[in-house]
Amino acid sequence: VCNAGVSGPTGPMHEMDVDECSQLYAVNLAHPARLTSMLAPTMAERGGGSIILLSSIAGLRGNASIGHYGITKAGISQLARNLAVEWGPHGLRANAIAPGLIDTLWSQAILTNPEAASRRIGQTPLRRLGQAEEVAATALFLASKAGAFITGQTIVVDGGTLISDGN
After folding, report:
1. C-alpha distance across the termini of the chain, in Å
2. Which of 32, 69, 98, 100 is the catalytic position?
3. Which of 1, 17, 47, 109 is a Cys-bridge partner for 52, taking CB atoms 3.0 to 4.6 Å apart?
4. CB atoms within 10 A of CB 144
5. Which of 36, 92, 28 lies closest to 55 in space, CA to CA?
6. pLDDT in tens, 138-150
7. 126 contacts 101 by C-beta, under 8 angstroms
């Protein structure tokens, strides 16, 4: 499970500092690509396995304030597809999980602003935050025999936010 990531600064993409942008792409996309390139051959030699990458719903829709972050997370979903095609014949599966707003330290910037928190939760059909355990359970499912015929997919865990019109 590749679960490291940074959010990077918020704001328009053209205003992001070049060094901060490079760090964001390195941590969120280049490092997972490098790590999976190092591990996949060994996993295949051992008979296969499951690679699970953490994406985000920010990689599945546009965003005016975290655009570069979203691009890195879209890249993670594509990495899962490419790994699935390349390593599937060797018994290796690769999938991504795209969480929405999950109740973690990561989401505190939104949750500490009552107006923003209310607006964001109101855009989620289940009208609540997700829990880290719900994302972990999805990873466990994908790693288990129950998920043995799933590969190259991005599983959205967002309480319906992505499919909602915000009402």
Report:
1. 34
2. 69
3. 1
4. 10
5. 28
6. 999 999 999 999 9
7. no
